[in-house]
Amino acid sequence: MQAIGSSKIMTTQEAVSRFVHDGDSVIVGNYTEGMPFSLIFEIIRQRKRKLTYYSQSGSADAEFLVAADCVEKMCSAFIHKWGGRGAGSMVERYQRAGKLLVEDYTNFTYNARLAAGAYGYSFMPVLPAIMDSDVFKVRGYMGDRKFDVIKCPFSGKDIPVVPAANPDVCLLHVQRADKFGNAQHWGGLGSTVHACLASKSIIVSCEELVDYDIIKSSPHHTIVPGFRVNAVIEEPYGCHPVELPGYRNPDQAMFSLINSAICSEEGLSSIFDEWIYNLPDRASYIQHYVQVFGQDSLNRYRAKSYFSAPANYGAAFDSGWDANGLALGLGVDMDGLERLIAEKGDLIHVE
To answer: How far apart (Å, rounded) are the C-alpha atoms in residues 285 and 44?
Structure first.
């Protein structure tokens, strides 16, 4: 975790403008919960075009980005069909009309691509049973590069492999982060960690910005270190209407509105005008929500507290620090040590 360096705090508008460009590949780090809708709405608001969109379980995020003509290609393991069997799903409509190219993977093979990208590999082996499925046989825009088959150097058997995925930008919403970008998340992870670490740039929005000391006191919650993050945004309700453990419940009123709107392109266009294009940011979005649904409805969206037990990180071995908090051999406290590292680098010669 990074405790030195400059602040990476930005506005949502600034972060999307700086790090998301036409033609980029963009991935949502969150897996169903905590979807970064504030960032997604800003991409739509800024009318980004010709994106390749990765989403392990595409839902309203995919529907919105596709309907806004932001996405040209999509890679996913699952697409939730909004709006019902008859008229719903903008993803399906665009795909049938030839306006959207889709590549289907299983959850395992989708995650294997991201794991390869995160580890710095060019490919990753997957389970041989995939070769008997249509996921393997039916190829979309990736063609022969969707899967390949190699000989195992140990057994001589055929092993299917998937290419590494290294998206240009990862969008992530978490419970808390500090100004350096150290991002903490708890709850269902899915492909979250690999999605972030495989990506070239990471934009983090969070429910609240906290001091580094809070981050340091619970390192097990840090899923992305600050040095890998390009921008951090304090954005309460940044995942609305989706849930986030410890902060938000699913907002059924908003979900019902979205589900009804997706049944027609006219309805979705109306949603875009009312909830995205005519509102400059998430704060105005929440203010409009209160005007439409009432403050009581927003309050019901707040999650009830259910705290975990604290973890004791006391060292079980002789410390390199004395009772006064000074480093043995260097004679400086933690702040002094961080200044030395900033000035001289990680390797400090001790006489």
So the answer is: 14
Residues 21 and 98 in one domain: yes
- Rounded to whole angstroms, how far apart are CA atoms 69 and 268? 12
Do residues 199 and 147 share a domain? no
Tell me the mean pLDDT per 10 residues along the chain, length 351.
Answer: 75 98 96 94 98 92 94 92 71 91 96 98 98 96 97 96 98 97 93 96 98 94 96 98 95 90 84 96 97 95 91 77 84 86 68 53
C-alpha dist (Å) from residue 261 to 61, 176, 272: 14, 32, 10
Instruction: Let me know whether 197 and 51 are in one domain.
Output: yes
- Residue 286 domain flag: yes
Q: 51 and 97: one domain?
A: yes
Partners of 158 in the β-ladder: 151
Q: Report whether 147 contacts 162 (CB < 8 A).
A: yes
Distance in angstroms (rounded) separating the CA atoms of residues 45 and 220: 35
**86 and 37 in a common domain:** yes
pLDDT of residue 350: 55
What are the start-end ranges of the H helices in the chain?
A: 12-19, 37-45, 60-67, 84-87, 90-96, 107-119, 134-137, 192-198, 212-217, 252-261, 265-272, 282-293, 295-300, 334-344
Q: What is the CA radius of gyration of the chain?
A: 23
Residue 253, C-beta contacts closer than 8 angstroms, at least 6 positions apart: 241, 293, 297
Contact between residue 105 and residue 141 where contact means Cβ atoms under 8 Å apart = no
How many angstroms separate the CA atoms of 172 and 45, rounded? 18
Is residue 4 situated within a structural domain? no
How are beta strands 123-125 and 158-163 bridged, if at all? antiparallel
Conformation bin of residue 47: beta by default, left when phi > 0, alpha when psi is -120 to 50: left
All residues at 6 or more sequence positions from 223 whose CB lies less than 8 Å from its CB, including other chains: 174, 183, 184, 185, 189, 192, 193, 196
Task: Note whether 26 and 54 are within 8 A (CB).
Answer: yes
Q: How far apart are CA 80 and CA 36, in angstroms?
A: 17
